[in-house]
């Protein structure tokens, strides 16, 4: 039991230490943090006492304090030190203590106590916890921690789990000397349990009661949301921290990969929009026809009169169809090298300057009539805007392209934003800025929004399933919406959307009956997919008109399906021959075969993209072995393989003539939406990563290499396209 003199000495020591530590600051950390209770604060301080030599669990910690809160903490330590003979002033001045605050305290309180899965994820992730140097490269070595770097490094990734019996009377807390750098994985950590019991075990029931009665139990200041930038300058140990630049603050707020994606895609997407002659994009004549139909309320496939056979399409202004006809003749009749592909610039200028006529003409677009209105929403908006502004034909086409580009930036950009705190953001970036993806974003096609939705879906699946991080409410809403929209954007990617059922409900904050929400939305997505397939089924009978005249009647989906079911080995033989004869074309097309000019991107573009893929793979975060366990990862791989098979089966039935020797119509760009999830599976199975001389994953260097390689790839592709098309 302490005497009155002891208490007085302790109070004086507390006051002295409080005055010596006025400049301790708090670092913003997690978007969901809430103030800890007084009991929990005392427990956290007690649990992290460096004198206790307690075992570590790997939970992320923070040195968080304020002058008035620090005084209370040191006061509590002084009361115990007075009884144990430990000098509280010396402890506060020489020992670094970190106080653990859970980034999801409010959500954990709402969801109940941590589940066994959460605890397992927490322990499994602990050894791989590392700050993302890619979002804020300067944050890897905080200047103000020089005096305590050794202790900070030791404590930054661990929190004590329990006291030893022989240190029950040790000091409870000491002054924090600086703010620890932000951790990537704090958003999904479980709360520290049983805080009041920890105090009682560490200091004894009598000391805990004395601390409470004297009003010295500390209350931690709630951490700011993770999106809030850290203070520009702080003072720690008398040293002034260098003010962070505007670029660093923006990079931390939005993510370096997100910013780079927006800049590169906006610039090069606009370049391709201008460089590509009207209707020279992939199926851009039929794609624009369907977009125009949707913009004027034509949501369902519409049958049109055609002497050649079954046809679907819609009405388009005659002045627009005039440009379509000229473009079709132009890109199908090309002079030999080195002549330019474009016949006449003046002809496009003349046709494009005409006003949009009131007279409409029917246009055949059976191939795109099979698509739902969903992927055409941005293009339809662009058409309506152009009409409202009274733009001419050229302005109408450009407005439609730019609207699609903006839609791609918004949807895919949000996917990268969700990964802004993790190094795997650079993998998503590399896929999103592939030359073929950016080219399509700059032209009129349903693939623009299909690719965007696939990037968004994949990014959120990587975060929740493979990284094991908890999604925010906007991210959850986006994931659920994409589960319904992606299957009706392009049917071959329906299985990608169904991967939502593999995400642990805890990563979405779902408990109780809400755990079935993911299954509900998966069923809705599958049902909407089935309904639209039923609506669009008749269009398959008219797909033969896309081929040469002698093959108009040779594309019969029903006969092809019957053949697969009766003789699956024959189909596998045709598939094997297709791979043997066309795999090199698919590989090149994955990076870029630009439009109906059929211009392959140059070799330097492919090499630059491969470099970006290699570096983004090598610096990616390690995948979570708990949420992405063996079976979930295997199922994901099987679903990706099944999605690839759906691409081949779909084109075998809807485009390949009966008895043809290969599966015709397969293009490498069809595999782009599956790339992010496919590589994530490899990341889970291949643990190799780049590290520097300090055994840390480098940040700034790889980011510069990835962005530079992507710029080179896009520049080379745009330059080759310009030279061949425009001369």
TrEMBL record:
UniProt lists compositionally biased (Low complexity) regions at 12-48, 79-89, 98-118, 168-180
TM ranges? 254-275, 398-419, 426-443, 478-504, 516-537, 595-619, 639-663, 670-690, 702-723
**Bias category Basic and acidic residues: which stretches?**
1-11
Q: Could you tell me which Pfam families the record lists for this protein?
A: DUF2142
Keyword match Ubl conjugation: no
Which intervals of the chain are annotated as region Disordered?
Answer: 1-66, 79-214
Report the InterPro entries cross-referenced here: DUF2142_membrane
UniProtKB keywords: Membrane, Transmembrane, Transmembrane helix
| Name of the molecule in the record | DUF2142 domain-containing protein
């Amino acid at each position: 039991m302490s005497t009155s003199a002891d208490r007085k000495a302790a109070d004086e020591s507390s006051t002295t230490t409080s005055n010596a530590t006025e400049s301790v600051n708090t670092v913003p950390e997690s978007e969901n943090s809430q103030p800890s209770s007084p009991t929990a604060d005392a427990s956290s301080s007690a649990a992290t006492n460096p004198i206790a030599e307690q075992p570590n669990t790997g939970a992320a910690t923070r040195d968080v304090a304020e002058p008035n809160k620090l005084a209370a903490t040191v006061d509590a330590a002084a009361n115990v030190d007075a009884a144990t003979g430990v000098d509280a002033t010396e402890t506060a001045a020489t020992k670094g203590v970190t106080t653990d605050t859970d980034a999801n305290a409010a959500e954990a309180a709402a969801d109940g106590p941590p589940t066994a899965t959460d605890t397992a994820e927490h322990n499994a992730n602990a050894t791989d916890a590392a700050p993302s140097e890619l979002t804020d490269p300067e944050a890897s070595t905080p200047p103000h921690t020089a005096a305590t770097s050794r202790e900070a490094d030791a404590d930054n990734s661990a929190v004590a789990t329990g006291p030893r019996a022989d240190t029950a009377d040790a000091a409870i807390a000491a002054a924090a000397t600086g703010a620890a750098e932000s951790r990537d994985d704090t958003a999904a950590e479980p709360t520290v349990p049983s805080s009041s019991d920890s105090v009682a075990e560490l200091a004894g029931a009598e000391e805990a009661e004395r601390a409470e009665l004297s009003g010295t139990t500390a209350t931690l200041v709630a951490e700011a949301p993770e999106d809030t930038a850290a203070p520009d300058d702080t003072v720690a140990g008398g040293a002034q921290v260098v003010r962070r630049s505007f670029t660093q603050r923006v990079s931390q707020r939005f993510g370096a990969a997100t910013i780079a994606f927006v800049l590169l895609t906006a610039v090069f997407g606009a370049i391709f929009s201008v460089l590509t002659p009207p209707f020279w994009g992939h199926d851009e004549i039929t794609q624009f026809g369907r977009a125009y139909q949707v913009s004027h309320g034509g949501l369902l496939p519409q049958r049109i009169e055609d002497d050649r056979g079954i046809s679907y399409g819609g009405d388009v202004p005659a002045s627009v169809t005039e440009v379509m006809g000229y473009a079709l003749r132009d890109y199908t009749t090309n002079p030999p090298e080195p002549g330019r592909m474009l016949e006449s610039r003046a002809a496009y200028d003349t046709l494009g300057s005409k006003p949009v006529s009131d007279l409409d003409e029917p246009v055949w677009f059976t191939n795109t009539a099979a698509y739902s209105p969903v992927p055409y929403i941005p293009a339809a908006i662009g058409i309506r805007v152009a009409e409202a502004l009274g733009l001419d034909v050229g302005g109408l086409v450009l407005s439609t392209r730019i609207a699609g580009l903006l839609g791609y930036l918004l949807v895919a950009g949000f996917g990268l934003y969700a990964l802004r705190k993790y190094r795997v953001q650079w993998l998503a970036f590399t896929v999103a800025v592939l030359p073929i993806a950016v080219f399509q974003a700059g032209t009129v096609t349903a693939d623009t929004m299909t690719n965007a939705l696939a990037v968004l879906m994949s990014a959120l699946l990587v975060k929740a399933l493979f990284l094991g991080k908890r999604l925010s409410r906007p991210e959850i809403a986006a994931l659920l919406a994409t589960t319904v929209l992606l299957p009706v954007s392009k049917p071959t990617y329906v299985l990608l959307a169904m991967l939502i059922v593999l995400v642990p409900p805890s990563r979405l904050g779902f408990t109780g009956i809400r755990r079935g929400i993911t299954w509900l939305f998966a069923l809705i997505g599958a049902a909407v997919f089935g309904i639209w397939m039923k609506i669009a089924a008749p269009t398959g009978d008219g797909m033969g008109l896309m081929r040469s005249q002698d093959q108009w009647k040779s594309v019969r989906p029903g006969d092809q399906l019957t053949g697969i079911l009766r003789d699956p080995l024959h189909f596998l033989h045709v598939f094997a021959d297709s791979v043997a004869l066309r795999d090199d074309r698919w590989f090149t097309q994955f990076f870029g075969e630009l439009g109906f000019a059929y211009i392959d991107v140059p070799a330097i573009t492919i090499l630059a993209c491969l470099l970006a893929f290699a570096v983004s793979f090598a610096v990616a975060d390690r995948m979570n072995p708990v949420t992405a366990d063996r079976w979930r990862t295997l199922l994901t791989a099987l679903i990706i393989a099944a999605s690839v098979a759906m691409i081949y089966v779909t084109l075998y039935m809807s485009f390949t003539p009966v008895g043809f020797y290969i599966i015709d119509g397969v293009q490498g760009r069809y595999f782009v939406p599956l790339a992010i999830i496919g590589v994530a599976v490899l990341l889970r199975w291949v643990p190799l990563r780049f590290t520097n001389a300090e055994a840390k994953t480098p940040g700034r260097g790889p980011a510069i290499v990835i962005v530079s390689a992507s710029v080179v790839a896009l520049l080379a592709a745009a330059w080759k396209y310009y030279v061949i098309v425009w001369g």
